[in-house]
Design goal:
The chain is built from 3 helices and no strands. It is mostly helical and 100 residues long. The protein has one domain.
């Protein structure tokens, strides 16, 4: 099995309208989870192929653009999943319901 090299390559993400919030857990549906899994495998495959070819990093490389596109789709699907309320948010909601 080939070693994963995706952590050693840095890609600049295209400008997106996705807000950067502190890390929050998300409720990922089975359909979204399957899509994320497929996209993750595709990103890893293209990245590994890119590294094994020893290609340079020109900004117009179509393979690099494909990886960036897949990463953007991956983020879009992930951020469309609803956030799971934190423990403190759930406790506050419970206390409000009990007080009403």
């Amino acid at each position: 099995m080939a070693a994963t090299t995706t952590t050693t390559i840095l890609f600049t993400a295209p400008a997106a309208s996705i807000p950067c919030t502190p890390a929050r857990r998300r409720r990922i549906s089975p359909k979204a989870g399957h899509a994320l899994e497929i996209l993750g495998h595709a990103i890893e495959y293209l990245t590994d192929e890119f590294v094994h070819e020893g290609a340079a990093l020109p900004s117009r490389n179509s393979q690099l653009q494909a990886v960036q596109l897949l990463m953007a789709l991956n983020r879009q699907i992930y951020f469309e999943c609803p956030e799971v309320p934190s423990l403190s948010e759930r406790v506050r909601a419970f206390v409000r319901l009990r007080a009403a």
